[in-house]
Design a protein that fits this description.
The complex is a heterodimer of chains A (97) and B (172). By secondary structure, chain A is mainly α. Chain A is 85% helix and 0% strand. Chain A has one domain. The relative contact order of chain B is 0.12. The chains are: A mainly alpha (97), B mainly alpha (172).
Chain lengths: 97, 172
């Protein structure tokens, strides 16, 4: 085998026919500065935060509904007291006091 | 204003040091064929080559400032690629001398050459691969291997002679 033939064989053997688009795969890791595993972790943390944010208003509603009857009773009591106070004032006026 | 390809590369690399993503994207598009080709011919397996090439550009992104300007950006990238492939080959469990499934159809000649390359010393194999890669001059290949062009040429002569022997032994 001569040098020319060997060089030709090497050129053919080591030629790269197609190259993948490396930028497509590298850009998410470059933009965030995170590795694949770190991205997974960050995604998990983001999901957890989202769940907490969604759950918080639901919790607030349930707390409000638990206190609602007590607040209602307190309001009613205040109305009754105001009404009886008005009655006392009317009676006092009738008696000329 | 006309700039040589290496001047353009250096300008882009200076922007990569400042974490300019557009500059990195342009550098990748300019040199992905060279880096992937080098990784593919060293690792042989397409999937491993892609992973290695990705790691090369990620290292460039993180450590671009390590380029002191003493060699071309292409040579610098090849140096990173050579080290990355060496690390990965060391971690690999495949028996040296075998060519694992490359994930692509190959001609008999090509397979024979790749098997013969596997029988060479690592430095000699790297010299042959770099010399025959598209888009790399002898000077740039020598820079990537951190040897002088004269030493590279001598190594190529010696390695070609050894390759001929291996291939002729195989044919007999």
């Amino acid at each position: 085998m001569n040098d020319f033939k060997l060089n030709q064989l090497l050129d053919d053997a080591l030629r790269v026919e197609e190259t993948p688009d490396l930028w497509m795969r590298i850009s998410p890791r470059v933009s965030t500065g995170l590795s694949g595993a770190e991205l997974l972790w960050a995604g998990g943390v983001a999901m957890a935060v989202l769940l907490v944010l969604v759950a918080m208003p639901l919790k607030a509603v349930s707390v409000e509904s638990r206190w609602e009857p007590i607040a209602y009773k307190a309001r009613m009591r205040a109305h009754q007291m105001a009404a009886s106070h008005d009655k006392l004032l009317i009676l006092a006026a009738d008696n000329g006091e | 204003m006309f700039r040589s390809p290496d001047e353009e590369d250096r300008r882009l690399l200076a922007r990569v040091v400042r974490h300019d993503e557009r500059a990195l994207q342009t550098l990748i598009r300019r040199h992905q064929r060279l880096v992937y080709g080098l990784c593919l011919n060293v690792m042989v397996n397409r999937e491993d080559a892609e992973e290695a090439a990705l790691e090369v550009f990620l290292k460039l992104w993180r450590k671009a400032e390590l380029h002191r300007g003493e060699c071309s950006v292409k040579s610098f990238l090849c140096r990173i690629a050579i080290n990355e492939c060496r690390d990965r080959l060391r971690r690999r469990t495949t028996i040296i001398g075998e060519v694992e499934d490359p994930g692509v159809e190959m001609s008999q000649d090509r397979l024979a050459i790749l098997c013969a390359l596997r029988n060479l010393e690592e430095d000699d194999r790297m010299a042959i691969i770099l010399y025959h890669l598209d888009g790399l001059s002898v000077d740039e290949a020598a820079e990537a291997l951190e040897i002088s062009p004269g030493v590279l040429k001598m190594r190529l002569v010696r390695t070609r002679a050894r390759l001929k022997v291996i291939l002729e032994d195989r044919d007999e």
